[in-house]
Amino acid sequence: MATILIVDDEKEMRELLRLYLEPEGFTCVEADDGEAGLAMLANAHIDLIILDIMMPKLDGYRFCMHVRERSQVPIIFLTARSDEWDRVYGLKIGADDYIVKPFSPNEVVARVYAVLRRTKSSAETPPKYEAGPIAVDEKARKVTVNRKPVVLTLKEFELLMLFLKHRGQVFTREQLLDRVWGIHYVGSTRTVDTHIKTLRIKLGEAGQLIQTVWGVGYKFDEKI
């Protein structure tokens, strides 16, 4: 069965989750803050993470973003933060599910099974995207142009994936900031222009597929 990492600063919460998950055959390991959770993730095989948000040293949001820079391990937020903004933001930065405290332990177990089934199915047929000479393996975060590897930064990769998933759609700079950098980003929209410029350079001639829509923003057109 799967190994589940529980990252929560409340010992009683970790013990409660163990009480319901272990009889189902899951192996549970624990961390009481985000930094300890990252260390455990680096040194053990983890199949799924149950993650609190409000923790010392490294909160759940930052933990999730760190994980998504290197891994697609499923993440379920389990938190007292119930605002719609928190749920939307948690899912946007890479969580697979979001459960609000207080909760039914049996529902948590059911959600764990559901997320594991969904991610297992996805892993068996990893999403791949092609447009002209560009080919992307999203799960492996590998990009090639004319079968030659292209190294992108995290934000460049996320921009490219957004364009590939929404071909022909025009995005304003503000929309790109919200979707890629997050709604809390306080920098200038010039950041978008800078990243688009470097992404185009790295893609070579294929970079022309990312087109400027003057006075609006950018779109991805499959025809150069």
What can you tell me about this protein's structure?
The chain is of the alpha/beta class and 224 residues long. It has eight helices and twelve strands. The protein has helices spanning 11-21, 34-43, 60-68, 84-92, 105-124, 154-165, 173-181, 190-203, and strands at 3-7, 27-31, 48-51, 75-79, 97-100, 128-131, 134-137, 142-145, 148-150, 171-172, 210-213, 217-220. The strands form three sheets. A five-stranded parallel sheet has the order 2-1-3-4-5, sandwiched between helices. A four-stranded antiparallel sheet has the order 6-7-8-9, with helices on one face. Strand 3 (48-51), helix 3 and strand 4 form a beta-alpha-beta unit. Helix 1 (11-21) packs across helix 5 (105-124), helix 2 (34-43) runs parallel beside helix 3 and helix 6 (154-165) packs across helix 8 (190-203). The longest helix has 20 residues, at 105-124. It is elongated, with a radius of gyration of 19 Å. The termini are far apart.
